Amino acid sequence: xxxxxxxxxxxxxxxxxxWQLFSRSLFHLxxxxxxxxxxxxxxxxxxxxxxxxxxWALLYLDGRNQSRSRLPAAFRIPGGIVxxxxxxxxxxxxxxxxxxxxxxxxxxxxxxxxxRRARLDQSSPTLSRAIGVVSVVVLLxxxxxxxxxxxxxxxxxxPVADAVGTFVSPIQLPAWTNITLVVAxxxxxxxxxxxxxxxxILDGGLFDGDD
Length: 211
Known about the structure:
Blueprint: E1 6-7, E2 24-32, E3 38-46, E4 56-61, E5 64-70, E6 73-77, E7 80-87, E8 90-98, E9 103-105, E10 107-108, H1 113-123, H2 125-155, H3 158-164, H4 175-194, H5 200-204
Antiparallel strand pairs: 1-5, 2-3, 2-10, 3-4, 4-5, 6-7, 7-8, 8-9
Helix pairs in contact: 1-2, 2-4
């Protein structure tokens, strides 16, 4: 469900700091304004949330706050809408949808984790593609090895066992292997989130609560 945006308070956009790499996403969109001069719209998301655990997206125009919204959000700006949504690993959407239906992703701030990943893609495309392939392979392995064990655990719950019986997984892995598998899947999904890649099976399924 898309949240209704609330008016901003005109506070200035804070500079991105290196220690915010995995706690903050910052994206920019340059458009031609009504006067013909370029305008820069920015979307700032702090993934830790507020005191109530709510994650907000803040919209800025030329560095001044215009509005804010809980996620998922849709900010109306001249010429279209900026759509913002998250997964458990970062942003899965931060796109400008123009009135003519064309869509483009906002540009990550150079100092952000997303910006650094984008620079790697530009400077070393072969390495970047290899990392992307490894991330997908890791998540596929996690699904194949993890799903049977999860199903077995679920069918051991007494009401479920009484209703459908107990399923015995053909795959039995030691605890340390399962922990390694979960950590590897988290790293792989985080890497994909830095590129705004999201698939509800690969990045949702086992380890993510989808929006």
